[in-house]
Amino acid sequence: MLERNIGVALWNQIEQVLTEEIEAGLLRAGERLATEPQLAERFGVNRHTVRRAVAQLAERGLVKVEQGRGSFVAEHVLDYLIGRHTRFTDLVNRQNRNPGGGFLFAAQVEAEGTVAEALKVAPGTALHHLETLGALDDRPISVGTHFFPAQRFPDLVEIYQREGSITRTLTHFGCGDYERRITRVTARIPDASDAELLRQARNRPVLVTESVNVDAAEVPVEYGIARFAADRFQIVFET
């Protein structure tokens, strides 16, 4: 596959071959590259030559090298705009990406602590607890925990399962013009369940957004906590 004595370094030829495979989709975003010994055997070169080719791919932003884990095709990062009208599906569509995901499970719970305070309801108030998965180009990107006042939104779970969208569900109840009032952002290591849902290693962090959405009268309609795969998106704050 490689040509010697043509004035083009072997590592440069390997870089070009891997670049073409990435651009053709043969190596997909997030996919792990073959190991150095495997690539050295494939191309008939030593590991130093392979290492230089991969380093150049990393410098160009085509791959990410993770210590102890290997090299991975770089993700196509989503710009996640935090503003008054944050809508996941709209953000994804505007960047010519494909949104996906959906329902995980639901339960009815009683409001307490932080949730009750965020929704401005008394402790013990009945709430819908909804868990969702957000996907980008068929890859999971976020796990969401959502709370809604049950009295105001009867049958919310059934409506969501039919509509497949928080925005369309709130629109059904006349709250489609809801706005983001508060967003807090932190980072942490995911628990086992989130790591499995996001298809990522436990030692890779997630970014966590805690948010409150309100209706036109400034009454809270949703309190949410979303965990995002940190290397698949970046938060952009609208000012």
Tell how many strands the DSSP assignment holds. Answer: 10
Determine the fraction of residues in helical runs and give it as a percent range: 25-40%
Low-confidence stretches: none
Structural class: alpha+beta
Beta percentage is 25-35%
Order of helices and strands: HHHEEEHEHEEHHEHEEE
**CATH fold name of the largest domain:** Chorismate lyase
Describe the structure.
The protein has 239 residues and is of the alpha+beta class. The chain folds into two domains: 10-73, Winged helix-like DNA-binding domain superfamily/Winged helix DNA-binding domain (Arc Repressor Mutant, subunit A), CATH 1.10.10.10; 78-237, Chorismate lyase (3-Layer(aba) Sandwich). It is built from eight helices and ten strands. The strands form three sheets. Strands 4-5-6-9-8-7 form a six-stranded antiparallel beta sheet. The N and C termini lie far apart (52 Å). The model has no long low-confidence stretch (mean pLDDT 89).
